[in-house]
Structure formats: structure tokens, C-alpha cells
Amino acid sequence: MSNLEQWQIGNDRYLAALLHWLRLRLIQLAELSDKPTTQELKQAEENIAEAAKLQPPPALEILSQQFNLSPFEQNILLLCSALELDTQMATLCAQAQDNSHWRYPTFALALACFEQPIWDALSPQRPLRYWRLLEINQSGVQPLTTSPLRADERIVNYIKGLNYLDHHLTSFLIPLDVPQQEFELPPSQQSAVETIVHSLEQSDWEHLVIQLVGSDSLSKQLVAQQVAAILGLTLYRLPIELLPSQPQELETLARLWYRESLLLPIALYLDAHENNASVLEGYALPLHRFLARSGGLIFVSGRDTQPGIAQIDCTIDVNKPTPDEQQQLWAAALGSVAGDRPGYLSSQFNLNSIVIAEIAKSTLVENQPVADSLSEQLWRKCLAYTRPRFDILAHRLDAKATWEMLVLPDEELNLLHQIVDQIQHRSTVYQDWGFQQRMNRGLGISTLFAGESGTGKTMAAEVIANDLHLNLYRIDLSTVVNKYIGETEKNLRRLFDAAEDGGAILFFDEADALFGKRSEVKDSHDRYANIEINYLLQRIESYRGLAILATNLKNALDPAFMRRLRFIVNFPFPGAKERCLIWQKAFPQATPIQDLDFNRLAKLNLAGGSIHNVALNAAFLAAKADTPITMAIVLAAARIEFRKLDRPINESEFRWHNLTETTR
Predict the structure, then answer these.
(1) In which order are the strands placed within the sheet that holds 296-302?
(2) How confident is the model over 345-395, as pLDDT tens digits?
(3) Is 576-663 a CATH 3.30.1360.70 domain?
């Protein structure tokens, strides 16, 4: 027989002794013919005292200690609970009160039945009502003393030895079951656990609120769960948006949680992570009131500190594992097939320990890949996990361009290759060679693509993303910039934070609209516009990924951005030689062409983007005519492009047929 089973038997024996004593008291009060003797009452009390020697103590004794009940209040609770435990109690209550309709306990009955009465036992501030251990069904003008009393269902079950979470809380709380790891927390997170445990050991944590701050929800949950495991507590999660807005409902929820924390070994994880700063606007007051009226060990999780909440006892920063720790986690998860993969995976992707373990395990188990394809599968799964969801703030570009399609002077082409090389060798320079130990900013790469429209800036961004096998997101400035104060910074933060976890390149097209020069402050609008630029200056420098700024107006950018840019690549207007190469690459191999004079086409003063438009329009003209693409068709499409660009047209440049006939 287990210890729990032995305790349950002892608790049942204790309850039986209490109920027998209570029946004798009610019979004595009713003055029935079989009135108990003094000896019988004394023997019943001795039986109770003997049964109460149970270790751990009986449930009613524990409850009385936890809620600081007086002997009289404990007896009232016993009287109310007895109605659910003994079918004779309703009849005895009616007989003891000399009223056949009062088949329920009342305060008047308790005053008459038990010794050492307390007249304010049912006041709202005394334990019985404060902790909602019982309910008073008072109706109309019925006096409080004769109103029916009823024990709370949760409390009755606890007294019987059934200890489970109150069903009123199950719709709010979710057991926080973070997947268990096969290895310990990384040192940076284990240090946070030790700090919290030390704080708990130094204080009375009957009411302790710990704020966990950081951008990664899973890491904070791991830390909280580790603390709860050390203390032997079960951790429950409550999303902050579920906090009631009505004061009475919120008061009930807080009081019930506090009561549960005294009855069960549990802790609460209040999750405000996804709400970010908006939590202060919509949920600050409910959060403040809940913490003020609740108790036990409570973790408050948020991306930022929550100012103005006095109940928070300490704040702990919890971040994802450091790059070195992530490299070690990858090595442990991959085991003998790790090779050099942990280095380049940790340098590109910023993942927590759970995700690293899951990706490694699923990749190794699914197909038992050979060494040559393992790297590719790991990279693809990391991309899939870190693919950020930007809502309407960014648009993912399907990067198809390759180096062969890009036509640029050698110097600019070399700069683009250097960008790719720096991304690929970040692990070596930052971690192996120690540069990260001396830097806390500038670990990312920010570059500027400057040049006229159509000179290949977007294509170059696609080439880099395609070569690095990374997602490319073009930022929609119309949705990022918001007229309301502070909203633009929030949107930008969402962008940078989402992309920083890896697998994404941020492409700011028409960047001069967002990264423009700061202006002289003449009114509040100028001041807040400058604040946006200042935020961008700080964020672009601390950003750890690759950000590409593209502009047609290089001089319109704020000079302070120039220092923070790792590369500036100028995209010149193509010369005749470059235009000839662009024309040759403008038509896919499957496209039927006939006698195209690329040298002649190169004389048309068009940028690469315009050449692509001409080639595409020519293809549609040829498809309609059901012929290959000829010079006449290309020149006709070029004439359309010139008119679109509002450029002067020299008709002799577009007379291919006449020129051919004259030559013949």
C-alpha cells in the first residue's frame, strides 16, 4: 500500500470521527429522546484527537492552517461540508433548528452548536468568505443568521482528500508543458534559473512576482519550468488577454488562484509576450489588479519590462542561447555527424534549444540522410522554422536570379561577392577568432544599393538571397510608416526582430523615404519624425542579419547611416558593352529568336530593367503573331518602352525592315 493510500484511509477515519461527533452535537441541540451522554461526547472528541495524529495531517487540519481558521470557523466549515458527506445531516439540521423547512446549516445553528463563537466569522474579510470557502444564499429580507450556508464544492472535495485544480479555473489556465530536453539548459539560461531560485530562498514566496523579459517565449518558459521543477511545483500558463476586464470577475479569478496556490503546489505563468507594448494600453489595469489581489509564485512574461506595476519583486532577462551555446547545442544534437555544421548553422540562425533539438532529431530520424545531403536538409528546416510572418509589413520575393544573369562592372560585382563571403564566414570571424567578444553592435551587415531605376538593385538582392539560400523580404513602406506617434517604431521593431532570428534578408526598396535626412525641429511633427530616424540609426546598427537598402537618391539619405553601412554598392547606368550582355541574357533559352543584332540593340540607351520590359513585350508580340522574335518585333517593343519613359524617339533607330530592304 502506498503512502497516499495509507493517508487517504487515515483521512477517512478522521472525517468519520468528526461526523460522528457532529451528529451527537446536533442531536443534543435538538433535545431528542436519545440525547447523547457527556461520556459519549468526550469519547467522540478523544477519537477525533487520535485520528488527527495522522502524518501528514488530515485535509481539514491542513486547510485550517493554510487559511488561518479559528476552531469555531473550522466547525462552521465542517457543518456545511457534512451536508455533502452524510445523508442524515439535513434531517438533523432541521430538528436542531426546530423547523422542518430549514434542512440546511445556518450561522444561528453554528452559534448554538459550537463553543467559542466568533460573531464576525461570516464577515467578508474573515477567511470563510474571503477565500470563498462557503457561500451564503441570502434572499430578500432574510437575516444573515438564518440564511442557508453551503460549502464550496472544491473545498468539500479537498476535505475528502480529492485535491485537484478548481474547475472554475480550468477555462483560464493551461498546463505549461514545454518539451523536455535531453540535455541541461545552456549556461546563460541556467544562470537565470539559479538567480530566481536564490531570490526565492531569501524571501517568503507566498506572494512573489518575477518578471521574465526577453524576445523568445520558449526560452522564458523553459526557465520558468526549470524553477518550478526545482521547487516541486506544477506550472500553469494564463494568457494575459484572458484576464477579465470587469473588476468583480477579476477579483474572483485572483482570489480563486490565490486559494489554489495554498492548496496545491502550483505556480502561474502570466504570458504577455505576444502583446508587447500594447499590453500596457489594454491590460495594464487588469494585470495590476490581479497581481495586487493574488498570491503564490507568479511569473510575468513580456518582451519588455512592464513599468508601473509595483507588485513585481524582481526582473530577470532571459534570452536565447548565445551563438557559442547554440553551436554547442547543435553539436550535442547532431552527435557524430556534426562536422562543421554547428558553426555555420549557429552563425546564421538564432534558435532556442528546443527548436535546435527538434530540427536535429527530425532530420536525423526521417530519412537517415547521407552526409552530403544532411547539411541541405538542416538548412531547409531552419529556413522553414525561422520564416518570419510579417503580416502586411513585408512581401516575400521568390529569388530566382543567379550570378550569370547579373551584369555589373567588376568592382561592383566583387563587392556583392564580399557580402556573400562575409555572411558565410561569420562564425569563423565572430566566434572562432574572438571578434564577438569585443563587439556588441555591428555584428550584422547593412549595405546600400544606389543607382537609377532599372540598374539591377533588386536583381542583385535576389542573387545574394539565392546564393545564400535565404528568404528575401521586400519591406512595404506604406504599411510600415504610420501617422500615429510610436506606431512606425513598433512596426520596424517587429520587422527587425522577426528577421533577426535568421533565414531572412530585409530589402528596403526606395529606402530614402524611410532613411531620409533629419530635419530642423520646427514643430512636434518634425520632432517625432526625427525620433523615427534616431530609432532606425540604433536598430540598424544592432541588427545581426543582412539588411539591404536600395535608393535612387543616395544624397537624400541621412549621413549618419553611411557610417553604419558595411558596404555601399553603386549601380551605374549600363554602357554599350554591358547593354549588349544584358540583351543577350534577356531571352530564356527556350525562347525562339531569329537574327537578333545585339550590338544594334545595345545602342538603345536603356537600363537593364527597361531591357527586360522590352524583351517581355517583344515575346508577347511574337506569340500573338505566331513567329519567332525578330529585330522588327524587338524594335517595335523598344519604341513602346521609349514612349513610356517619355524619351525622344529617332524614327531611324527603329526602321529595321526598311534598312534591310535597302541593303538588299
Answers:
(1) 174-175, 234-239, 266-271, 296-302, 207-213, 314-317
(2) 888 888 889 889 888 888 887 655 555 588 888 888 888 887 766 656 678
(3) no
